[in-house]
Amino acid sequence: MTETIARRNTKQRQAILEELRSRRNHPTAGDLFHSLRRHLPRISLGTVYRNLEILTETGQVLKLACGQTESRYDGTVTPHTHVCCESCHRVADVELDLPALADLAGTTVDGFTIASHSLLLRGICESCRRSS
Ligand SMILES: [Zn+2]
Ligand SMILES: [Zn+2]
Q1: Which of 10, 11, 21, 39 would staple 75 via disulfide (CB 3.0–4.6 Å)?
Q2: What residues does the ion ligand 1 have nearby, CB within 5 Å?
């Protein structure tokens, strides 16, 4: 019985990871739950949250906080820059040429050996700007 549950958990975690990797829009746990439910009718929102926590801890998923709203998740874990809209809270990847930042890995800054970096830009997206 326990073994069956463990196997189902692994299968669900894999499905969550695949769904997240197939999207580039940094969905919330709720967004993922709504799409996963179509082919995994037994999945619960709690399961999605729990597995996203595990995947974040194991470094397979990035957790992004844009202000005080629900966390968003990213299946792309290579260092990249994000921009978040302070109005609708959507998060997007941005192409920013910051060679100095990319070269920081492995160097020492104020006594810290740098392993990785993350940068979150904040602003107002085009559609929010138009509708205001
Ligand atoms: Zn917006
Ligand atoms: Zn991203």
Answers
A1: 21
A2: 85, 87-88, 125, 128
